[in-house]
Specification:
heterodimer, A: Rossmann fold, five-stranded parallel β-sheet, 18% strand, globular, B: 524 residues, alpha+beta, six-stranded antiparallel β-sheet, five-stranded mixed β-sheet, 10 helices, 14 strands, 53% helix, rod-shaped
């Protein structure tokens, strides 16, 4: 990883995108935004982010589709699912599809930043991932 | 009384047997009595022959006899003895004959009684069978099988009442054998045989040809039954239907068969009532389960809908601590403002739904310009990032509650953006004494199976529940408000694809002079 880690924020809520972009920028990340699954997959292909903050309930293509799509790839970014869905069934499904972390909304942004850093540092010890 | 007669016969048998000199007089058999009669006849004949022989011998040997034993005296003595024995034999024979007849009577009675017992046993078994199943169709099948088996015939049917009062008729729900009543046959109350039995609630036993005048509506069959019975099914005073059986062979029904069918009919009526109660209970349980499912889904939806704005508020607060300039802070304050408004609107939506559920509140009717109201709501929607095309007359005045109308139009536009595909169009068209408000989108439309359900509280389509936010109250609120205003709302396919939500509102007369409330001049 060189320079600022790239974080793709995927959420259909404009205010979540806006606030998380400001926070991550202030915390030294390089944020990019996507409001639906289709845009997210395109930006992952184009920009190869280090980590993706992925919402589940979205129009066009939802978060499950994005996870399933990424699961089949040899090279993929870390994925932290950030969803208001809080059931164990959803969490299990996300981990089965290859999610690295699962954060339930409403999260404390500072905690999310910590989780992003932890995940990235875990990844640094496992260079084969990217 | 059969039992009294039997006891009486027993006592007389005992008495006659004692008099007749039977050794085991308590329970003599007919065979024993007959044997005794034969013995008696044999003894009588032997004794009389012996007496006759003795008289002859006495006549021959009279010379050698003593003085007092003269032939005449001897003859008189022998004749006297013979007469005495004959009298004894006749008396015994009379008693034995009487005993034999009594025993025969008792045997007939016992056999009749055992037949009756067997039938009662079969009736009990049939009753147990019809009450052992709860599914109505199965019950009806078992009922008919049991009745036919009990009466040893092959043709019969069960008919149940459908409809109420004047419209009530009998419908065949089970039928077997050489029957002109097939499944689904209908007979009015009072018509034909079954209809008359249902009307009079009196069981009927018929033999031979049926009199058409007595049973209007009855159609003569090609093969007429030899004998037939029809019994009403009544449970706790309520007429449920009729059970019919027919015999085409030699078997002819009698009063006893009718009584048997009546006894079965009582159990059958109870079984049908139980099956219906069970069915109603099953439907009720299914409804409760569905209600439980929608409530669980509602709790999940509400918690999700609360979490989303809270995430933005927390994010905005956290970001504002890191913000470097005033402009950025103001932008974040706007986020907090928007999201708190969103939370407040959700609470309001739930309260409105609860209020509409009570159906107590009457809308406050005022003169409003629907066209202007639609344009205003569309503008708000545009500002919120949900563009809308409007086609409406310049003016369209109706009497309605403005707040309700705003919510109806707003919810439908929001719904079209959430579940459909842009462009979203709103049209207002006068149609006779009504105004038709339509909200159309370019999505995939609503499948026919869901067109009613989407207006039910908390309903969330499986197709969209995971991908679209919402708590399932938007459309139920629209329906509640439209109906409170005396209108109707429905969804259909939009011309060219997508969904078309239509609201038909009655134009209430504003005042005497104003005849045409909507003025032409379309404006987008």
């Amino acid at each position: 990883m060189h320079g600022r880690p790239k974080v793709l924020i995927v959420d259909d809520e404009p205010d979540v995108l806006l606030t998380m972009r400001l926070i991550l920028e202030a915390e030294g990340f390089d944020p990019a935004l996507a409001a639906d699954g289709e845009t997210a997959l395109r930006r992952i292909d184009d920009e190869q982010p280090d980590i993706v903050l992925l919402d589940i309930m979205m129009p066009v293509l939802d978060g499950w589709f994005v996870l399933a799509e990424l699961a089949g790839r040899a090279r993929r970014p870390f994925v932290i699912v950030c969803s208001a869905k809080s059931s164990d069934v959803d969490k299990t499904r996300a981990f089965d599809l290859g999610a690295d972390e699962y954060v339930t909304k409403p999260y404390e942004p500072d905690d999310l930043v910590r989780t992003i850093r932890d995940t990235l540092s875990r990844g640094a010890r496992r260079p084969a991932r990217l | 009384m059969a039992t009294a007669t039997r006891t009486d016969i027993r006592e007389r048998i005992e008495h006659e047997a004692k008099v007749a000199g039977m050794r085991r007089f308590a329970r003599p058999s007919i065979e024993a009595v007959e044997r005794r009669r034969l013995q008696l006849w044999a003894i009588t004949i032997t004794v009389i022959a012996a007496m006759a022989g003795a008289t002859v011998i006495a006549s021959i040997a009279h010379a050698n006899t003593v003085e007092w034993l003269r032939p005449s005296t001897l003859r008189i003595a022998i004749i006297g003895l013979a007469l005495g024995f004959s009298a004894y034999a006749i008396e015994k024979e009379v008693h034995l004959h009487r005993l034999s007849r009594l025993l025969m009577d008792e045997r007939v009675l016992s056999s009749a009684l055992s037949n009756r017992l067997q039938q009662h046993g079969e009736l009990t078994a049939a009753g147990r069978a019809v009450n052992s199943v709860l599914d109505l169709h199965e019950v009806l099948d078992v009922i008919l099988s049991s009745a036919l088996e009990l009466l040893r015939v092959e043709t019969g049917s069960v008919m149940l009442i459908e409809g109420e009062d004047d419209g009530a008729e009998l419908v065949a729900v089970a039928a077997r054998g050489n029957n002109d009543i097939v499944l689904g046959s209908r007979v009015g109350l009072g018509e034909s045989i079954a209809g008359r039995v249902a009307h009079s609630r009196e069981p009927l036993l018929l033999s031979g040809r049926v009199d058409d005048e007595l049973y209007p509506g009855h159609q003569e069959r090609i093969v007429a039954p030899h004998s037939a019975m029809s019994v009403p099914l009544v449970n706790r005073g309520q007429l449920l239907g009729v059970i019919n059986v027919s015999s085409f062979g030699e078997r002819s029904f009698d009063e006893h068969d009718l009584q048997l069918l009546c006894l079965l009919a009582e159990q059958v009526a109870a079984a049908i009532t139980n099956a219906r109660l069970y069915e109603a209970e099953r439907v009720h349980v299914a409804q409760l389960l569905e209600l439980d499912r929608t409530k669980t889904q509602f709790v999940a939806s509400v918690s999700h809908e609360l979490r989303t704005p809270l995430t933005s508020i927390r994010g905005a607060l956290s970001a504002s601590r890191r913000a470097t300039d005033v402009e950025q802070r103001n932008e974040l304050l706007d986020v907090i403002d928007r999201q708190t408004q969103r939370l407040a609107a959700m609470v309001e939506e739930m309260l409105t739904a609860a209020r509409l559920e009570r159906k107590g509140a009457m809308p406050i009717l005022r003169r409003i310009d629907l066209a202007a109201l639609v344009r205003l709501v569309a503008l708000d929607s545009q500002v919120a990032g949900r563009p809308v095309e409007v086609r409406a007359p310049q003016r369209c005045e109706i009497r309605a509650d403005p707040e309700s109308m705003r919510r109806i139009v707003g919810n439908l536009i929001e719904n079209a953006h959430k579940y459909g595909v842009p462009p979203v169009r709103v049209t207002v068209e006068p149609a006779g004494d009504k105004v038709l408000l339509s909200v159309l989108d370019n999505g995939t439309g609503v499948p026919p199976a869901e067109r009613e359900k989407i207006f039910e509280r908390f309903y969330r389509s499986d197709r969209t529940a995971t991908s679209r936010p919402g708590i399932g109250l938007g459309l139920p609120i629209v329906r509640g408000l439209v109906e409170a205003a005396g209108g109707t709302v429905w969804v259909e396919d939009a011309p060219g694809g997508g969904a078309a939500f239509r609201v038909a509102l009655k134009v209430r007369p504003l005042d005497e002079q104003e005849v045409e409330p909507c003025t032409a001049g379309q404006r987008s």
